[in-house]
Design a protein that fits this description.
By secondary structure, the protein is α+β, with helices and mostly antiparallel strands. It has 41 helices and 61 strands. About 12% of the residues have low confidence.
Length: 1465
């Protein structure tokens, strides 16, 4: 058959479209066929094809069982499944078990007779090869992408779906689902089972399986899956869950840039080589192949294929992989890719052994270089040029691809006759360019484009105007291009950017031609450059003499379009053969013309040649290409649409050899420049083939049935053409194109399939009917067209039949279909009516039986006929016809009235209504408006109201149907700007928009209506920072000052809550009246920054802050720093000016703060405390010491009441570094001396709180044991709670000796602790504790009583309810004693009445206390006494008098505590 060939590209986006059997035979699905390639030798070889599918091949699999490995199965997008014998290349059986496209296929590795297939509807079908039985299952209603049969259990099948689901089914149990494997997020591209049974432990990252090794299972088997989500997952089939996830490594693409549109594609195929339980092969992003080692982690987990030398990997995504172990021990991996290459890899070394290029389109052009021997160029329909060095011995497929600058099919090629490596090309989109195949530079492209496909390129001597000029400036060769529009352009190869010239002008001028030239279809320069032959669309061949292009002769033997012309080469052939011209057209006969005498002796006037020198007959279809042999005299090879290549002995008119290795018609041919016996051909089947003339079985083209069928088909086409010509005038189909090519206006040679049903055979056809969808739909449509090519011829005429319109005069028309005698009698009757004074009796034209005669009599008869026709139309419900009849008769008002009543008014009737008068037209418009409203065409209805000047009615119509945008546009265009309705419309629209959540649009409506306040409010409804800021700005610009301030303040507070201090200040700075709030935020920012110590508070991340807020100045008090910042940044000082402190303080007093509780977050506590601190500094500047002290106490009390002990301690240190509240500012020499009772009470309470924190600091510093016992780093834990849990209940101080042995001696207390021992406050605190204790006991008694009343207590429990009440109350009191420094439980005999009376006594006692004691409390006195007495045992820092005072207070108010016993005793 053929020696070498480049096969068609494997189909894309198929999960399993290639497979290799044990003997090294690779099967690849390409387009509708399967190519068989022998990969067992050192180099591959295409050995045959399996032809029979009617649509794209979507799956292929070999039977891997001994004795049956030559049997294979394939599936197609038409739903069929074919069984083949690869040895005999024959079809065994075809099955049509699927109704939709088959997307997955696999021959079971366990059962030699089982084949499983799945389609895009989710149906799984089992085929039994031996019996022909089939069984269908429907496990999941999802699109199947891939499936794989288990290599260990015949009934287990893994199915992968489009949505990322993987299902394990049991086909022996009617497709029962065993496991659903969830984990992938996108399409499952491939599934692969481990060839070894058992689940040995695999390496797994900690986040995968919470351990370093995944557990194994000897019963199951691992399954690998590859998905579009860029992960490979390993699954346990025994457990039904994932055990490992592999993320694809990202590798920067080496070499040239990649098309951005291609980068996004991903197809993740996985392959588990046989016998390798821990090694897995997968594809990667840009065509790389990766070997995974499942026992390792990190970068050691994967190894890249082809790293030994550059350029081994694919450069596009890989779709399929299959492996085989040959008898010589080599283990090979075969991969197919989008880069249209098939590669073979050695799994031992991971190196590429060989690469087989493939073709993704028709081979339109095929030509050998006249300078570079053996250099073959291929122009292919996949938008690429291949240059194949056919003489290399190391790599038989040494091919380079050129794609830069090419955006469509390459339809023509021509090598420069002298310059090596210079290759010109023409494309389907009319582009002409020149490539230097020995460089990586992009091509030079001519600036002159053809309007249609370029069919022919030829190098020849320049002709005017390009031949003018000096010898050094004009080119030695010009490039000529001929395209489908019938124009031949001459390009200057040295200046392709210049404009090309049309040679038709030169031909007309030289030969004085006035008529229009026939469109050109081909040209060929004689090798010596003296003459050029130009073929035309009308079948004529004109021969011109260079350089003036004088017409020598016109050859008129062909009667159809000229497809190809070739001159005999000069070389070493006899001179008498140099003037032989071969021509081929669409009439299947090759003519040879001997033009020697005409060329040698040019005639004065052009000659007409009507007889050929030789006639080569044998082809049964059009001639598409030809080539003279450079080794023989007068030997020619031709290719044709009959699918064969024919070698001729021209002088003998004898057929020597016929090649039939292609499937489909041939398009290109060339003779090998080095081997006289070798010819190369290319065609529709996407292949370029090398074959030897001497080895062909046949001599002549095929005859018999094929030729007979062709003649019948041509007859049918001729009849169809006549029909189409008749219907084309009425909008019918264009004339049928024989074999897909146009016979009119385009060349029927190399681009014919571009215009018709063969378009599916180009680039997109290599994709299967799987994703991407953008290429899927067009392909399916064109594929269907190709499949039903014959049917389309006959269906076109029926599909294009138009529906016959309804007759306006059906009754009278029906009278013309009566018998012939009646029709003849009508003629006599009509003659009598027209020529007799008295009509025949009973004959009234236009009425009764003579209704049809009304058309031929007078007007009254016509009116009578119209009345009868109207009655007929009314009965049939055809009121529109009645309207037109009345319109024809001149009764326009009646026609409009009827159309109004029946709702049949239309624009046409309305356009002619003014002919009946204004009133009639106005009524018709109003009726049409109502009709349009019923049809919900409100805009059209309003427009018609405007036509009768009813503007306000149109406005009401649009407004009632909420078409606000349109009605507002109408009002603004037609009414004055101050129209009240405009404001109403804006307001109504704003309400609707606000209700729907379109706040910005509603704000624009409010602004247009003059309601700026509402506009700002509606924008602020979203309540985010950007909306609030916009609303504040809008309100400020609109003059709504109060609202602007309120919104700006809200926005600033939200920003401050997120610690975005800079933006918060920016928002407030836009309004001068918000200065006091800027001061507040300044204090809050400083306070937050200075409290950001981890030991004080867990600080949240700060979004933005000012430079002056950095906590670097710690040698001054907080209030001094605030004052300094205010003076520097805000210009606020004690001096009266634009910013009076008294006025600012008065303004800030209006800002309320909530009641202090323990559930407020820390951020809010800081904001509330900073508010009081702002008032403190303003009071200081205003010299209001009374207000200063009260606000200072409030600022500290916020942290105390919130239970933030450590934060409160830090704040006290910042405010009073020396521990004395009287020393307010050293920097400004400010001391506080209060004489007013309330201020003095606040100062004493604050001093007590400061001393309380210093007391604990001293205690923690002096006692290592106690320090270890207390966790004082938590900001939300007060020491009072820890003390009551520890010291008071005896949990820390177990013995005095132990404490003494583990402590250190310190000096005296550095503060006055006497302020902590206040007798009045101790009495008040004791009363408060007693009241709280009684309240809890009362609550417990009420709860117990309610339980008894509701029957929740059992009968046995009711007897002891009284005792339980008191004991429960006592226990509650005991707990309270541990929680607060309380008293011992009361006697259990107390009743509800006695407790109530005690409560009244304590309430009266508390009421008698002064307000200063209750408003400004001190720290717990009993707690302070205990701490002081504990310090006394380990240190002499407490004076004797202070000890006695502490013991006295403890005896009076805390003697009943357990911790007090050791000190009281």
């Amino acid at each position: 058959m053929h020696e070498r060939s480049l096969p068609a590209s494997p189909n894309w986006y198929c999960s399993r479209c290639s497979d290799v059997n044990s003997s090294g035979l690779l099967g690849v699905g390409a387009k509708n066929n399967i190519f068989l390639i022998d990969v067992s030798a050192a180099s591959c070889r295409v050995v045959g094809e399996l032809v029979g599918h009617r649509d794209l091949v979507t799956g292929f699999s070999f039977c891997q069982h001994a004795g049956q490995s030559h049997i294979c199965v394939s599936s197609s997008s038409d739903g069929s499944v074919h069984f083949w014998d690869s040895d005999s290349r024959s079809l065994i059986r075809e099955e049509a078990a699927h109704q939709t496209s088959v997307t997955a296929l696999h021959w079971s590795p366990v059962d030699k007779n089982l084949v499983v297939s799945g389609d895009e509807k989710g149906i799984v079908v089992c085929h039994w090869y031996n019996t022909g039985d089939i069984a269908s299952f429907f496990p999941e209603p999802r699109t199947i992408f891939c499936l794989s049969c288990s290599p260990h259990t015949w009934s287990s099948v893994a199915v992968g779906y489009k949505d990322g689901m993987i299902v394990l089914i049991d086909v022996s149990k009617k497709g029962e689902v065993m496991h659903r494997l969830r984990g992938h997020d996108d399409e499952i591209h491939s599934l692969a089972w481990s060839s070894l049974i058992g689940e040995d432990p695999l390496y797994s990252r900690l986040e995968d399986n919470e351990g370093s090794m995944s557990a194994g299972d000897e019963k199951g088997c691992y399954l690998a899956s590859g998905s579009k989500d860029q992960t490979v997952r390993i699954w346990s089939s025994a457990k039904g869950k994932g055990v490992m996830t592999l993320k694809l490594p990202f590798m920067k693409k080496r070499g040239s840039a990649v098309d951005p549109g291609v980068k996004e594609r991903l197809w993740l195929h996985v392959h588990w080589p046989k016998g390798r339980s821990t090694q897995l092969v997968s594809s990667c992003f840009s065509g790389e192949l990766v070997m995974w080692d499942l026992t390792r982690g990190g970068k050691q987990r994967w190894t890249l294929f082809g790293t030994s030398t550059e350029g081994q990997n694919h450069n596009r995504i890989v779709f399929n992989m299959s492996s085989v172990q040959l008898q010589d021990g080599r283990e090979l991996l075969i991969s197919t890719s989008m880069d249209r290459e098939i590669k073979c890899w050695d799994l031992a070394s991971l190196d590429c052994l060989w690469t087989l290029p493939t073709l993704g389109g028709f081979v339109y052009a095929l030509t050998f270089s006249p300078v570079g021997v053996g250099c073959l160029a291929l122009g292919v329909g996949d938008n690429m040029i291949r240059v194949w060095n056919t003489l290399t011995t190391q790599n038989q497929y040494d091919t380079r691809s050129f794609w830069q600058g090419i955006k469509s099919k390459v339809t023509a090629l021509a090598w420069h006759p002298k310059k090596e490596g210079s290759l010109s090309f023409g494309t389907d989109d009319g582009k002409v360019g020149i490539y230097d195949v020995f460089s990586n530079k992009p091509p030079q492209v001519s600036s002159s484009y053809h309007r249609k496909t370029v069919y022919t390129l030829a190098w020849g001597p320049p002709v005017p105007p390009m031949s003018f000029g000096a010898a050094g400036t004009k080119p030695s060769y010009s490039l000529y291009s001929c395209a489908g529009e019938g124009v031949i352009l001459q390009h200057d190869p040295t200046r392709l950017s210049g404009e090309a010239s049309d040679i038709d002008k030169l031909i007309r001028d030289t030969n004085n031609i006035k008529h229009k030239l026939s469109p050109h279809t081909d040209l060929s320069w004689k090798p010596d450059g003296k003459v050029v032959a130009i073929g035309n669309e009308d079948g004529c061949i004109d021969v011109y003499e260079a350089p003036s292009l004088k017409l020598l002769c016109s050859i008129q033997q062909h009667h159809k379009i000229i497809n190809v012309l070739r001159w005999h080469p000069d070389l070493s052939s006899p001179p008498e053969l140099h003037c032989l011209l071969a021509s081929g057209s669409s009439n299947a006969i090759v003519y040879i013309h001997d033009l020697g005498s005409i060329i040698e002796n040019p005639p004065e006037s052009p000659l007409v040649v009507t007889e050929p020198y030789r006639r080569l007959c044998g082809h049964t279809s059009k001639i598409t290409g030809m080539a003279w042999s450079p080794h023989h005299d007068a030997r020619l090879v031709t290719v044709s649409y009959d699918g064969t290549a024919q070698v001729w002995d021209v002088l003998q008119e004898a057929a020597l050899s016929n090649y039939r290795g292609h499937v489909g018609y041939l398009l290109s041919v060339d003779w090998s420049p080095v081997d006289p016996d070798v010819v190369w051909t290319g065609g529709k089947d996407f292949t370029a083939q090398e074959w030897m003339v001497s080895k062909q079985e046949f001599t002549n083209p095929p005859k018999g049935k094929k030729s007979t069928d062709l003649k019948e088909k041509m007859k049918t086409n001729a009849r169809q053409k006549k029909k189409n010509k008749k219907t084309s005038g009425a909008g019918g189909a264009s004339p049928f194109e024989m074999n897909g090519e146009s016979v009119k206006g385009q060349k029927a040679s190399k681009g014919q399939e571009l215009s018709g049903e063969d378009a599916e055979d180009e680039v997109s056809s290599t994709s299967s009917p799987l994703p991407p969808t953008d290429t899927f739909e067009p392909q399916r449509k064109t594929s269907a067209a190709a499949k039903s090519k014959e049917k389309a011829v006959f269906l076109d005429s029926t599909l294009l039949k138009k529906k016959k319109p309804r007759s306006m005069l059906p009754v009278s028309t029906s009278m013309d279909h009566r018998p012939k005698e009646d029709l003849l009698q009508d003629c006599i009757t009509l003659a009598s009516v027209r020529h007799s004074e008295a009509p025949p009796a009973g004959c009234v034209p236009g009425k009764g039986e003579h209704i049809h005669l009304g058309l031929f009599s007078d007007r009254q008869g016509l009116y009578r006929m119209f009345e009868a026709e109207e009655e007929s139309h009314v009965e049939a419900g055809h009121y529109d016809s009645v309207v037109y009849l009345r319109l024809w008769s001149g009764d326009l008002e009646g026609a409009l009235q009827l159309a109004t009543e029946k709702g049949e008014l239309n624009d046409h009737l309305l356009s002619i209504a003014p002919m009946a008068g204004f009133q009639v037209w106005s009524r018709a418009v109003e009726a049409y408006v109502k009709q349009l409203c019923l049809q919900e065409q409100y805009l059209k209805a309003a427009s018609h109201l405007l036509s009768i000047n009813k503007l306000y009615e149109a406005i009401d119509l649009l407004r009632s149907h909420k078409l606000y945008r349109e009605v507002i546009a109408l009002v603004k265009a037609r009414l004055p700007a101050d129209e009240p309705v405009l404001k109403e419309l804006y307001t109504s629209w704003a309400s609707v928009l606000e209700k729907d959540g379109h706040f910005s649009a509603a704000a624009k409506c409010y602004l247009a209506a003059g309601a700026s306040f509402d506009a700002a409010k509606v924008i602020a409804r979203k309540n985010d920072v950007s909306s609030l800021r916009t609303a504040a700005t809008l309100a400020r610009v609109s003059g709504e000052v109060a609202l602007a301030q309120s919104l700006a303040l809200r926005c600033a507070k939200d920003l401050a809550a997120d610690q975005d201090w800079v933006r918060a200040q920016e928002v407030l700075s836009s309004q001068d009246s918000l200065l006091v709030h800027r001061l507040h935020l300044c204090v809050a920012e400083l306070l937050t920054a200075m409290l950001a110590d981890p030991s004080a508070v867990s600080a949240a991340p700060c979004v933005s802050s000012h430079s002056w807020a950095s906590p670097d100045e710690c040698h001054i008090s907080f209030q001094d720093r605030v004052r300094d910042v205010w003076e520097e940044q805000f210009g606020v000082s004690c001096e009266t000016g634009n910013h009076c402190p008294e006025a600012l303080l008065q303004e800030l007093k209006s800002v309320e703060s909530p009641t202090q509780t323990t559930n407020i977050p820390l951020k809010q506590v800081v904001m509330y405390s900073s508010l009081h601190l702002t008032r403190v500094v303003l009071s200081w500047l205003s010299e209001d010491d009374r207000q200063l002290m009260k606000e200072l106490w409030q600022a500290v009390a916020w942290f105390r009441d919130a239970g933030l002990f450590c934060v409160c301690t830090e704040l006290c240190r910042l405010l009073f570094p020396d521990g004395d509240v009287k020393v307010f500012s050293k920097k400004h020499s400010k001391n506080l001396h209060h004489t007013e009772e309330e201020a003095k009470a606040a100062a004493d309470s604050l001093q007590a709180l400061v001393s309380y924190h210093r007391l604990y600091k001293h205690w923690w510093s002096s006692s290592t044991l106690i320090q270890n016992g207390f966790s004082h780093s938590a900001a939300d834990t007060s020491p009072g709670e820890e003390l009551r849990d520890g010291v008071i209940n005896g949990g820390v101080s177990e013995s005095e000796e132990m404490v003494s042995s583990t402590t250190k001696r310190f000096g005296e207390l550095d503060f006055d602790a006497s302020v902590l021992l206040s007798e009045p406050h101790a009495v008040c605190q004791a009363a408060q504790r007693s009241m709280k204790q009684i309240q809890e006991r009362l609550a417990a008694m009420v709860l117990q009583h309610n339980r008894g009343q509701s029957g929740l207590l059992l009968p046995g429990e009711k007897e002891s309810s009284a005792s339980n009440q008191t004991s429960e109350a006592g226990e509650t009191a005991g707990c309270q004693g541990r929680a607060g420094v309380g008293q011992r439980p009361e006697e259990p005999q107390e009743t509800l009445l006695s407790l109530s009376s005690k409560m009244s006594e304590f309430q009266k006692q508390l009421a008698d206390f002064p307000d200063t004691i209750k408003v400004y409390p001190r720290p717990d006195i009993v707690e302070c006494c205990l701490v002081l007495l504990h310090i006394c045992r380990s240190s002499s820092s407490v004076s004797e008098s202070l000890q006695r005072e502490a013991k006295d207070l403890l005896c009076k108010h805390g003697a009943d505590l357990k911790a007090s016993q050791q000190f009281v005793a």
